[in-house]
Amino acid sequence: MVSGSTRGSGEEQVATLKEVAQLAGVSITTASHALNGTRFVQPETAARVFSAVKALGYRPNNIARGLRTGASRTVGVIGPSAQDPFFAEVVVGIEHTCFERGYEVYLGFVEYPVGVTCGEPVAELSVEQGFLHWVMEGRFDASSPGDDDDFPGAMKEEELVRKLLAREIDGLIVNPGLPDARAAALLTGIRAKLALFHRSVQGLEADLFVSDDYAGTLEALDALLRLGHRRIGMVYGYSWTGHTVRERFRAYHDAHQRAGLAVDTTLLLNGGYSMDVAADATRALLALPDPPTAILYWSDLMAISGMDAARAAGRAVPQELSVIGFDDLPVAARVCPRLSSVRQEKQAIGSAMAARLIDRIEGLVQGAPERIVLPTSYVARDSAAPVSSRSTPSFPSA
């Protein structure tokens, strides 16, 4: 038995597997099998081992164990920003599933500068408009303003990947911001199993998890069209030609085409996933000679900022301007007016990624990588209303 007197009153000592085995009255080998699930252990014996773990506060050294067994039972996650409420909920799903299956999670965040478009705080309008024309024509293979090999955060993203791989992680979940060639060079051939979030990388074999951005965007736009809106603005997040960009712009194009409407790219402005930039974009849209009667934003936070900017400009929401966000964060139902939004199943995405990644690690799923699409849905609240004569006031020319 382990005596409490073996632990000094000074610096805290870490319990060992040997002490766990002694307290449980089993061999070190049996204790190891019970904790790692590497061999059958009688339930009552395993219960004594886990009771000893709890009593001693034992924490396995996954890195050391990985050096012995080749499996560290750790997963790395690289996301855009620790301040991103959307990705925070995705991480909740990842962590919950990893915990349930006995894996630890290492988190890293690139912290892309918000409000940065085309690699600079203010994008050259002609370049951005050229990109919009390309995507509206379906030319998603064309280079875009965001496909900058030296975009802010590129070096940090590469460093985070290398540092996590140095920890001998078993799996890696990453939302890549690097251009395809650079991301493929970095991630091809790594030992860890790989899952990509919201963006595929040409030349890289990995499971890809995305939301059904096309269906969600189309549903929101159709709702606005049914309300009588014909001048619909969109404040998008960035101009990288990834899944989100491609599918949301494609839905915008198709919704207008089905309604017999021409696409006016002057109604599309880059908000940089920044509340400040989204407010500027809103003011610019409302100052057009023929302003939009409704605006779809690519995030709830940009939409909330847009509503504030509209009110400051004398436009009532939704009486004079209908607004729809994206993500359906908890705050969407708590602002006034309550924000209509496209719901993404954020925690479900995280849980699905973690479950598939661990299945790959443990050999439960084999074969070619898959593209897993999770559903979206439009949630109608109070910020979108039928178009009215008040929605199209006259604005003086600049």
Question: Could you explain the architecture of this structure?
Answer:
By secondary structure, the chain is of the alpha/beta class. It is 40% helix and 14% strand. Strands 2-1-3-4-5-11 form a six-stranded parallel β-sheet, sandwiched between helices.
Topology record:
Layout lengths: L16 H8 L3 H9 L6 H14 L5 H8 L4 E6 L5 H16 L3 E6 L15 H12 L17 H13 L4 E4 L5 H8 L5 E5 L9 E5 L1 H14 L5 E5 L6 H16 L9 E3 L4 H12 L7 E4 L2 H13 L9 E6 L12 E5 L1 H16 L9 E4 L1 E4 L19
Parallel strand pairs: 1-2, 1-3, 3-4, 4-5, 5-11, 6-7, 6-8, 8-9, 9-10
Antiparallel strand pairs: 10-12
Helix pairs in contact: 1-2, 1-3, 5-13, 9-10, 11-12
Total count of strands: 12
- Give the SSE order as H and E letters: HHHHEHEHHEHEEHEHEHEHEEHEE
Strand content: 5-15%
N-to-C span: 84 Å
- Main beta-sheet strand count, sense and barrel state: 6 strands, parallel
Gross geometry: elongated
Q: Count of helices?
A: 13
Nearest-angstrom radius of gyration? 25 Å
Q: What low-confidence regions span 5 or more consecutive residues with pLDDT below 50?
A: 1-12, 116-124, 141-147, 393-398
Structural class: alpha/beta
Helix content: 25-40%
Q: Strands of the largest sheet, in order across it?
A: 2-1-3-4-5-11
Mean pLDDT: 84
Could you give a quick summary of the protein structure above?
Helices cover 40% and strands 14% of the residues.
Question: Notable features of this structure?
Answer:
398 residues, alpha/beta, six-stranded parallel sheet, elongated
